[in-house]
Structure formats: structure tokens, C-alpha cells
UniProtKB/TrEMBL annotation:
Subcellular location: Cell membrane
PANTHER family in alphabetical order: SUCCINATE DEHYDROGENASE 2 FLAVOPROTEIN SUBUNIT, SUCCINATE DEHYDROGENASE FLAVOPROTEIN SUBUNIT
UniProt name for this protein: succinate dehydrogenase
GO CC terms in record: plasma membrane
Lineage: Bacteria, Pseudomonadati, Bacteroidota, Flavobacteriia, Flavobacteriales
Entry EC number(s): 1.3.5.1
Pfam families referenced in this protein's UniProt entry, alphabetically: FAD_binding_2 (PF00890), Succ_DH_flav_C (PF02910)
Leading EC class: oxidoreductase
Length: 667
């Protein structure tokens, strides 16, 4: 085991980034034309990085497995993006955003990175407005803000319930400009299969054309991984079904340390599981918690009657409702952080107060907000004694203006009108705070290999605050990586093009072809999805919202056995050298089967509860997370050694000079 050097600049926290930018090496504009960069993934982190690097003059190649860069999973983000603009005048600042993020992550993130994130957050909004992103505006034309969980200010900029899609369109338009200029070469329907190292440096990738099945070689002076998170290791998650860990995991197997894999976020506001045949889950934006009140029946017999279909939620009077978040956390109420809200929902449902047929759902109710907005509108319209019908009409219109597309989506999936009856929600896997370890420059432990956005571990600690994923992705791509990658590439101005006939490419290509052929040659009887579903159940039941030593040890053994069964009995029809979606899935599930074991190993070694990592053995008498700052105030970065059970732990000690370590409280 070794201690990792994050290369954090010296000096006061608020001056580190400015000083670092002044100290690092730059690449002359004329020399940038001779340097190639590969970007894997075209979500917000990848698209913003590719567009900015190309604008600077570098030659960029982008790779995505979708049929268009704009179909990246970033489009699924609904609620908003954080920035410390303080437009509301409610006391926000760079420091406040920094503090909320570190506290929200339960003091398991790196101070310097988080402060830099807060420092550049305002620039992101200016950039996106300049690109034409249609942020919501107040009556006077100024950009509007709303609140998200874990904060006491309004700092979240939004575009109705389509913020991720609108931000990605902005980045995509910037990308298209560079594609048109010839500075970006876009490879769609291509999947990265491996990183190629020459003399220890990342110098290219092996990719598979998903249409023809052809294996391709692509060289560059640096490789940027912006390939998203690994939530689909649970099978059921809010991630797009194609989201996977392969790019990051293949880099891990080539020497990039994997940090904090057990730090996974369970989002509290998702549409509950409906049955065994379901293949993904749908997120209801956290923004709904601004106006929606979360509750369950206060009487167990009422909950049982609802589950049996004998009682409707609208028939339960106010005095018989338990608004449990407002009861337990009066200061933050329904806007507590996601990990806190998720565990609270699970506790109520486990106690027998769940409200759908499976008993795994709580209500998200907008009746109070509809009445409040309706009365405000009636008053401002000069109606002194409005009828209940008028109030309801005005209130519905106000809610529709703020959340209309989300309500429509819910009704299409559940076939219930959320304007008339409360939504049903339950926690589900959503985001992964863990990822490839990176230093302050966003470089992994492989020289020349960078990781940005959800693919790295750097900014969110053990729990991500809502609306911070889009902020981190765009901060990394627009305002951090374009500076820091130049410091590394300044040594490559005389290197010249990287040859793809190098023996390192020969070896990497052969290894990939052999692996894919091995999967096809197994010719077992079990479809790939069966293994993925079995893995997902192990992960959810034993590595999900709550974990304990016995279950984690069992999970490690069960996953190893499942992986052994996979390589004996999986059925992959078709050929390697042709379009083969089942082969693509098999390769991804193979990686998940290794990651899942490392995930459980990481959770087992961390004998504490913090953020999204909740160990049953380590909790306060009130059921809150019990951290162990003396023994676990570090980033756990794992080095690949052949089998997940053999992975070697390296530690990066987390030092807090600017924030006092204390137990999180949202009461």
C-alpha cells in the first residue's frame, strides 16, 4: 500500500486554482495543431471537453456508442445545474457552495477540487447562456433559481425538467462547429475496448465499430475518458440501458486506480419497481421536492388498506399522514440530501408503511403546493373569494409551468394523474461517486490518461448533492481539463504522430479479439441478461442502501461464483466480426462481474457509514450515518492485480484545513 500524491497546489484555498493556472506549462497555438487527443464519451463532460480542446486548436477524435453524440445519458438529467451566482440574494457564495458540497459528501471529498468546482460554476452559466440554453427566467427576464436537497439557498438553474438535454444541445452545437471545421472527427456507434500504452503512457485506444464489428486502432498523444458512471452494475437503475463501466474498467486493468467504488448514490425520487421483467427505472427529478411533500400513512392499518386497494391516499386526512422528513429533519424538511431521504423512505417501508402493492413506495404529494399557488394567482388576479375550482385550476397551471413534462412522464408510465392523486416514489440506483482516481489535474495513475465527469471520483465524496453532476461535467470539460492537459502535452510538441503499427497496438488488438472470440465460443445455454439480473439482485440486496459484514462477504463469494458460471454457460450468438449487440452486452457484463466484486470488497473494508455507504453496524442511536474520521478519512484507490480479490489498496489522505469535520446534521 502507498499514499497517493494528488498534486494539490500550495497556498490558500481560494488562490490555488489561479496560482496553478499561472504556474503550469502551456502549448503554443501553432503546436496544438500537431497534437491529437481522443475523447471517450460525448455527454456533458466529453462534449464540452472535445469542443473546447478543438477550439483551442488540438486535433480531437470523439467516440460514442450511440448513433449521435447528442444521445448521451446526460440528456436524462432533469432538475438543474448548480452555480454560486447568488441571484436570489439569499447568502450564496463560492465558499457556501464549496461547504455544502463537502458536507453533502459527508466529508469524503478533496477540498481543493471542490473549491475549484464552486469557483468556476458561475462561468458555466455564462457559457451556456451564450450558447442559447433556454434557462427558466423570472417575470423580469432574469434567470430563475430553485432549491435542491442539502442546501438552504436557491442556486439551481434549470430549463423546466429538461436541463440535461438543453445543456447537452449547447455543448453539442459547440462540438458541431468544430466538426464542421475539421478539428473534431466524430466516431459514432464505436465502443472503446482498451487503452493502448506505449512506454507507460496512454497513446491510443482499441475500438470496435458496432455496425461492422471491425476492430480499429486509433492513436493520440492523450486519452480522455468521459464515459459516465457504473450504476448499471445493479442492473436496475435510472441509467440508460447502454451505460456501462467498460471504458473505465479497461483503463483500470491497464494501471488506472479505481477509487471508492462502493460510493454509489441511491436517488429517493424514482418511480417504483413494477415487476420482474422490468429492464430500467425512471427518475422523477429532485426538483419536485421543492413543492412536493413526502409522506406515508401514520397508521399501519391505513397503509395495509391502501396496498389492498380498499383506500385511496386522498381519503386519508392530514392528521393521519406522517410527513416523516419534515418530522425528522425540520430545518431541511423534504430537501434533505439524497442519501438521507432514501434511507428514511426505506425505513418507513421496512416498518410496514409502504403504499404500493409491493410495500416499497411512499407518496410525493403536490396538493398543498397546488392550493398555495392557486391562492396566490387568485389574489394577484384580483379575485377576493375564489372558489375551490378556481384555486385548483390556477394551482394546476402553476405546477404545469414548473414541472409539466415530469408530470406527463409519470402519468404515461403509471397511468395515474399526479394533479389529482399523489405520485408514488421509491429509492433507486442513480449515480456513482466512485470512479477512476485522478489528481488535481484530472489525470489518472496512467500518464496521459485523464478522466472527467462521472467517470472520475473527484468532487462528490460519499454522496452527491442534486444538480451537481451537470456542474462537475461542464466544469471539467469547459474550464479545468483544457488548462491541465496542456501541462502534460507541452512535452509532446516534438513527438509527432503516434504510429498505430507499434507492437503495443498489435498486442492490445490481439487481446481484445481473443476476449471477444472467447465469449462467442462458450456456446452456453444462458442469455447474457440472466447473468446481469442475477448480479443486480446480489448488488441490490447485499450492497444497496444498507450493507453489513455478513452480506458483503457473501456478495463477494456469490459474485465470484456467478462470474465463473458466466464463463462456462453464457450464450452469445452471432459472430465477432459483424454487428452483434449481444456480444457487446456480454463484454460489458463481464466487466460488471469484476467491478461488482471490487465494489463489495471496498464496502467491506470501510468499517464506517458515510453518505451513500451505510453499514448497519455503524450508525447513531437515531439511525444516522456514523463516520470514523480517525481511521477512514481517505480515498480508497484500488490497483488491479488480476482478480478483484487481489486488488491492492492505496490511500489518499483527505486533509481539511478550511472546513471543520463534524457529524452531518440536517435537523
Amino acid at each position: 500500500m502507498s499514499k497517493l500524491d494528488a498534486k494539490i497546489p500550495e497556498g490558500p484555498l481560494a488562490e490555488k486554482w489561479t496560482k496553478h493556472k499561472n504556474d503550469i506549462n502551456l502549448v503554443n497555438p501553432a503546436n496544438k495543431r500537431n497534437i491529437d487527443i481522443i475523447v471517450i464519451g460525448t455527454g456533458l463532460a466529453g462534449a464540452s471537453a472535445a469542443a473546447t480542446l478543438a477550439e483551442l486548436g488540438y486535433n480531437v477524435k470523439t467516440f460514442c456508442f450511440q448513433d449521435s453524440p447528442r444521445r448521451a445519458h446526460s440528456i436524462a438529467a432533469q432538475g438543474g445545474i448548480n452555480a454560486s451566482k447568488n441571484y436570489q440574494g439569499d447568502g450564496d457564495s463560492d465558499y457556501r457552495l464549496f461547504y455544502d458540497t463537502v458536507k453533502g459528501g459527508d466529508y469524503r471529498s478533496r477540498e481543493a477540487n471542490v473549491y475549484r468546482l464552486a469557483e468556476v460554476s458561475g462561468n458555466i452559466i455564462d457559457q451556456c447562456v451564450a450558447q442559447g440554453v433556454p434557462f427558466a427566467r423570472e417575470y423580469g427576464g432574469l434567470l430563475d433559481n430553485r432549491s435542491f436537497g442539502g442546501v438552504l439557498v436557491s442556486r439551481t438553474f434549470y430549463a423546466k425538467g429538461q436541463t440535461g438535454q438543453q445543456l447537452l444541445l449547447g455543448a453539442y452545437s459547440a462540438m458541431n462547429r468544430q466538426i464542421n471545421r475539421g478539428k473534431i472527427k466524430s466516431y459514432t456507434r464505436h465502443e472503446m475496448m482498451d487503452v493502448v500504452l506505449i512506454d507507460g503512457k496512454a497513446r491510443g485506444i482499441i475500438a470496435r465499430d458496432m455496425i461492422s464489428g471491425e476492430i480499429e486502432r486509433h492513436s493520440a498523444h492523450a486519452v480522455v475518458l468521459a464515459s459516465g458512471g457504473y450504476g448499471n452494475v445493479f442492473f436496475l437503475s435510472t441509467n440508460a440501458m447502454g451505460s456501462n463501466v467498460t471504458a473505465a474498467w479497461r483503463a483500470h486493468k491497464k494501471g488506472a486506480f479505481f477509487a471508492n467504488p462502493c460510493f454509489t448514490q441511491i436517488h429517493p425520487t424514482c418511480i417504483p419497481v413494477s415487476g420482474e421483467l422490468q429492464s430500467k427505472l425512471t427518475l422523477m427529478s429532485e426538483s419536485l421536492r421543492n413543492d412536493g411533500r413526502i409522506w406515508v400513512p401514520a397508521k399501519k392499518e391505513d397503509a395495509e388498506a391502501i396496498r389492498a386497494g380498499k383506500l385511496k391516499p386522498t381519503e386519508i386526512p392530514e392528521e393521519d399522514r406522517d410527513y416523516y422528513l419534515e418530522r425528522r429533519y425540520p430545518a431541511f424538511g423534504n430537501l434533505v440530501p439524497r442519501d438521507v431521504a432514501s434511507r428514511a423512505a426505506k425505513e418507513r417501508c421496512d416498518a410496514g408503511f409502504g403504499v404500493n402493492k409491493t410495500g416499497e413506495a411512499v407518496y410525493l404529494d403536490f396538493a398543498s403546493a397546488i392550493e398555495r399557488y392557486g391562492k396566490e394567482k387568485a389574489f394577484s388576479s384580483g379575485i377576493e373569494n375564489p372558489t375551490q375550482e378556481q384555486i385548483k385550476k390556477f394551482g394546476d397551471e402553476a405546477i404545469e409551468n414548473k414541472y409539466g413534462n415530469l408530470f406527463e412522464m409519470y402519468e404515461k408510465i403509471i397511468d395515474q394523474n399526479p394533479y389529482q392523486t399523489p405520485m408514488m416514489i421509491y429509492p433507486a440506483v442513480h449515480y456513482t461517486m466512485g470512479g477512476l482516481w485522478v489528481d488535481y489535474n484530472l489525470m489518472t495513475t496512467i500518464p496521459g490518461c485523464y478522466a472527467t465527469g462521472e467517470a472520475n471520483f473527484s468532487d462528490h465524496g460519499a454522496n452527491r448533492l442534486g444538480a451537481s453532476a451537470l456542474m462537475q461535467g461542464l466544469a471539467d470539460g469547459y474550464f479545468v481539463l483544457p488548462y491541465t492537459i496542456g501541462d502534460y502535452l507541452s512535452d509532446d510538441i516534438r513527438t509527432g504522430p503516434i504510429p498505430t503499427d507499434h507492437e503495443a497496438f498489435d498486442e492490445a488488438e490481439k487481446a481484445i479479439k481473443d476476449q471477444l472470440q472467447k465469449l462467442v465460443d462458450i456456446k452456453g445455454d444462458t442469455p447474457v441478461d440472466d447473468f446481469h439480473k442475477k448480479l443486480g439482485k446480489i448488488m441490490w440486496n447485499k450492497c444497496g442502501m444498507a450493507r453489513n459484514e455478513k452480506d458483503l462477504k457473501s456478495a463477494i463469494n456469490e459474485i465470484a461464483e456467478l462470474r465463473d458460471d458466466f464463463y462456462k454457460n453464457v450464450r452469445v450468438p452471432g459472430k465477432v466480426s459483424a454487428k452483434n449487440a449481444e456480444l457487446e452486452k456480454a463484454a460489458r457484463v463481464a466487466d460488471f462481474l469484476e467491478l461488482g466484486e471490487l465494489f463489495a470488497k471496498d464496502a467491506l473494508h470501510r468499517n464506517e457509514s458515510c453518505g451513500g455507504h451505510f453499514r448497519d453496524e455503524y450508525q447513531t442511536p437515531e439511525g444516522e450515518a456514523l463516520r470514523d474520521d480517525e481511521n477512514f478519512r481517505y480515498v480508497a484507490a484500488w490497483e488491479y492485480k488480476g482478480e478483484p480479490k487481489d486488488a491492492v489498496l492505496h490511500k489518499e489522505e483527505l486533509i481539511y484545513d478550511n472546513i471543520e469535520l463534524k457529524t452531518r446534521s440536517y435537523k
